[in-house]
Specification:
By secondary structure, this protein is mainly alpha-helical. Helices cover 68% and strands 1% of the residues. Strands 1-2 form a two-stranded antiparallel ribbon. It is found in: Golgi apparatus membrane. InterPro entries: Per1-like. Belongs to the PGAP3 family. Its main location: Golgi.
């Protein structure tokens, strides 16, 4: 089930690769002239920015150190270059709209409207809701195991995959947190953290998929499965962060692990008699429909809601279905083991 969840994530990451190339908007001569004038004058139309007495690389232009940008502005990354790009984009899109033109992408992104310094407010909101649902699913899973289902004499749950799902929950919440941060402000640091969290989640989900689908319960066998995959995923994350943020390579890695998980879960659902296997089918169908949102890309409605934001919205019910299956699986496996003991 976790693997199916991350298949949609891997597809989403793949479609994001295309957005990193030069876009039509930032190649527009009018937009480029606006940027040049803004960086010299610090103004776009009638709106001026006090912190635009600096060049686009952040270096002061004939001003003393105490006139440099405050630390909180640098932390939020709304520097002169960012403000110039945003307001030049807004001005150019208003002109384009008056002439009957359609919105175009700037620097790989659609022209979104900021809300309280948040770059993509809809995607951030949906990511936050999904994060909350992941936390809710984890807590209800914990309560079910420790307070509702029978425990072993040593007070440990009977469910053999308890620890794995706890790790999955932590990695999932970590990913959705950094997804919200990255969509709040997409800079190199937040992008690396977002991609690293996603790869870590996909990699661990691959391990969890193999162990659960093939019912691997022996600790030595689990280590044999997990060790090489953990080493590979760790190496890949280090490569992305400290050598080269290779989007093409990352796409291939995500695709291979995602498709492998899809095939494994599909085979498991076909042969199992699990009473909640229909939830896995439902989740997979919902995941495929969510992927279609990434394929059918369209400009943001009213400057807020685009296809990628709807993909984030689709994760909200799917996160609930995922943890619903996990709870059912824990109950099913616990009762099965108790019957064997009796």
């Amino acid at each position: 089930m976790a693997g199916s969840n991350l298949i949609r994530l891997s597809f989403a990451l793949c479609f994001l690769v295309a957005s990193l190339d030069a876009s039509e908007g930032d190649a527009d001569p009018i937009y480029m002239v606006c940027l040049e004038e803004c960086e010299k004058s610090g103004c776009v139309g009638g709106k001026c920015f006090q912190h635009c007495k600096f060049s686009s690389d952040g270096k002061p232009i004939d001003v003393p150190w105490y006139l440099q940008e405050p630390l909180y502005q640098k932390w939020k990354r709304w520097d002169c270059g960012s403000d110039c790009r945003y307001y030049c984009m807004v001005a150019r899109e208003e002109e384009r709209q008056k002439l009957g033109g359609k919105p175009v992408k700037y620097h790989g992104k659609w022209p979104f409207k900021r809300v309280y310094a948040i770059q993509e407010p809809a995607a951030v909101a949906f990511s936050a809701i999904t994060l909350a649902l992941q936390f809710h699913g984890w807590i209800t899973f914990f309560i079910l195991l420790n307070y509702k289902l029978p425990l072993r004499p040593d007070k440990r749950p009977y469910y053999e995959y308890t620890g794995l799902w706890h790790i999955y929950a932590i990695l999932a919440m970590n990913f959705w947190f950094w997804s919200a941060v990255c969509h709040s402000r997409d800079v190199e640091l937040t992008e690396k953290l977002d991609y690293s969290a996603a790869v870590a989640l996909i990699g661990f989900s691959f391990i969890l998929t193999i162990l659960r689908a093939f019912d691997v319960r022996d600790e030595a066998s689990r280590i044999m499965v997990a060790a090489p995959l953990i080493a590979f995923v760790t190496t890949h994350i280090l490569y992305l962060n400290f050598y080269k943020l290779d989007y093409g390579l990352n796409m291939k890695v995500c695709m291979v692990m995602g498709v492998a998980q899809l095939l494994i879960w599909g085979g498991w659902v076909s042969v199992t008699s699990h009473p909640s296997r229909w939830k896995v089918w439902l989740f997979n169908v919902g995941g495929i429909l969510a992927v279609l949102l990434e394929i059918y890309d369209f400009p943001p409605y009213k400057g807020f809601l685009d296809a990628h934001a709807l993909w984030h919205a689709a994760n909200i019910p799917l996160a609930y279905i995922c943890w619903s299956f996990v709870r059912d699986d824990a109950e099913f496996r616990t009762l099965t083991l108790l019957k064997k003991i009796k």
